[in-house]
Amino acid sequence: MDIATLFSHTLSPNATLREEATHKLELFAQENYENYALLLAQLLANDQADDAIRQAAGLAFKNTLTAKEYARKQECAHRWLAMAENVRANIKQLALVSLTAPRQTVGKISGQVVAAIAEIELPKYQWPDLIQILLDNVTVANNTNLKQSTLQAIGYICEATDPDVLANQSNQILTAIMQGARKEETDQEVRLAAMRAMYNSLEFIKANFERDSERNFIMEVMCGATQSESSQVQAVAFECLAKIMQLYYDYMRVYMESALFALTIQGMRNPDEKVQLQAIEFWSTVCDEELAMKEEAYEAQDAGEEPERTVHMFAERALGDILPVLLWLLTKQEEDEDEDEWTVSMAASTCLSLLAQCVGNIIIGPVVPFVESNIQDADWRNREAAVMAFGSILEGPDNEMLKPLVNQALPALISMMRDPVVNVKDTVAWTLGRVSELLIDCIKPKEYFHELITALVLGLQDNPRIVSNCCWALMSLAEQLGPSLGDEVPTSPLSMYYEGITTALLQFTDRCDNEANCRTSAYEAIATLVMHSANDCITVVQSIALTILDRLDASVSLESQIVGSDERADHSELVSSLLGVLTNCIRRLSRDISFVSDRIMAVIMRLLSNPKQSTATEDAFLAVGALTSALENDFDRYVEPFTPALCAALQNPAEYQLCFIAVGIIGDICRALGPGWAPYCNIFMNLLVNNLQSPVLHRSVKPCILSCFGDIALAIGDKFEPFLEVVMMVLQQAGGMRADADNYDMIDYVNTLQEGNVEAYVGIVQGMNSSGKASVLLPYVPSIFQFMSSLAMDTNRSDSLTRSLLGLMGDLAETFGTHLKQFYSAEWVGHILREARVSRHYGQSTKETARWAKEMIKRACQ
């Protein structure tokens, strides 16, 4: 059976035929990938074959070249590069030929194949003539289909390939894109493909954008595209302009004044919703950029420095023009609109909220008349728009400016919770949540508090959309009015309503499904109310804990009766919600949770023993971590039965978030049990060291592992000595890691890693010192000081890392005294102690740690 027939069978409605063909193709790919890939490329390029079969072959081929998972993607690349060079060259030529296909479905998948090969080969400096070939397809060939497919291929290449790899060929890529994007291009499909490619190319054309003439030409083409006869081209043009604003804000002043103000306002009034959305997004991007730049300017001012960039105040200067349009767009709702669908009115409200944060007080004057004239309008759209406008400006202006407005509006908003239209009530509930979160002082307990609580609790009986916002409002009230965890507060303004609110929420969660995530929201509200409860609500929290435990027990027992993926997903979500509330009950009750701790561990162990409940495992582990901290030494009786689950989590690097939580639990248990953790050390130390050296485990877990070594050493003292040599070697290796000066993501990671490293040293020093065995560390002191010296000279060192480093310096001085006098005479020691005490870049806690460390070192050097 030939390959074309096999692919035709994969499209058959006959399931048996489909499965058999798919199995044969998979077997073929495994046994002889080189021949398989060549046959697929030939089928893709075969003009005589059916288009559907060509498309299926192209998709199958592309999927052998790339994958979402990093490890799988690397395997695909290695397999491709291992093929004979002449075979690869033949396949690449066939892929390029396929771009000429008259049907766009085939041309599009051909472009994806070209891009998938390019993503592998271009970083290896292979296929050097690819970009020139694609440029010729666009600029020389007189074939509309070829132009469109080629521009799509360029877009895919720009999207998938590292921008640094393409930077050297940006001129050629830009030339090809501009050729298709110009107004002289009459075929709008070609122009659309060019504009999409432009969007994907913007990150690596920085050098082009820095040159005035090229930038002017690019902006002329982009602005011209907003006037295309095709609404799709217009929408992508505004999308490109938004990304240009994000990447190249500093160059935009002249273009804003000459064109973009008018064009974007025109775009927001466009009858096509796709165009409106992208034009609104342009102004949201402006606000995002200016907010970030203002924050940077404030930070620079605090540090006594000049800001690096100038804020052009585009949002403030355009306020009088864009605000009326945004308010008008708020009224363009649909009665039955899908919550998950991003609509013009949603985009307008988001933009208005960002605008308020960006321009502050001056937005109040124009918005208030709109609210006042529409909030009681007969048309529900105008009422809802008025409430949305009011809620959207509550963050940004000064609270003192907003308080009189909120005080005046609050009674009307509470009464509008009885509005006959669901959309209005939903927005009112959201606005009440915003008031609760941002302007809690406006909610006076003796005036509107009772009415507000009553309205929100009654809202739990309404439409699921309204329930979610009512829950959020109740959460905000709890967070703002209740005590923080650990604060001993006898009572709070919520206390007299506490039992009624939680009872209503528990009744709601017991009878509803999870439409619009309303059940999840209700459980989150209960968890928040538990966390922020005053002391006079403790008996209610105990009652909640028992109710939740009963429900969790019943839910775990029901697991075996569940069939169907949707039902299983709903059940897993329910179990996660119950565990979230239970975890907060444990944290709030602390040692008082011991009256049901046996039941809690029993149900969690049942849950962990069921592989079908893996999605709730992380939540179960978080509950165990909370129980460990609450019970302290009394958790000892649960360690042995819990150990297999903990080991399994550490041996599963694919679930790195679970692994991260498991490492944290080991630290919790160490702090709880102290020397009692020693019998379990051997197995867990081996697992931790293996994970630290694993190339598969996500890097975010590794700083936590380093810190955990310190927790273990501090807990077991001199019993840590057998692990000392291996751990010190690992710490020394990790201590040598550095980041490139321009790689900010890596700088943050290295700071976190080194902070874990320092915490490990601190725990080891303190642990050995507390058990009288500090002398065993003396051989490692020179390497520790070398590590500290390299950190002290790192200009990218964070405040928290500096504080940890100073703490280690002080601990070493306190532990070893005059033995380390020669090390503390190094120039870097005095420099970092001085810098940390006087520099504005460091917080008060770091300054205090520096003063303590200086005193310890002074004593050691006497």
From TrEMBL:
Assigned GO CC terms: cytoplasm
One of the GO BP terms on file: protein import into nucleus
GO molecular function, one term: small GTPase binding
PROSITE patterns listed in its UniProt record: IMPORTIN_B_NT
Cleavable signal peptide: none
Cell compartments where the protein resides: Cytoplasm
Domain Importin N-terminal, first and last residues per copy: 21-101
A Pfam family it matches: HEAT_EZ
Keyword Disulfide bond (UniProt): no
Keyword terms: Cytoplasm, Protein transport, Repeat, Transport
Family to which this protein belongs: Belongs to the importin beta family. Importin beta-1 subfamily.
Protein's recorded name: Importin-95
Record organism: Phycomyces blakesleeanus (strain ATCC 8743b / DSM 1359 / FGSC 10004 / NBRC 33097 / NRRL 1555)
Lineage: Eukaryota, Fungi, Fungi incertae sedis, Mucoromycota, Mucoromycotina
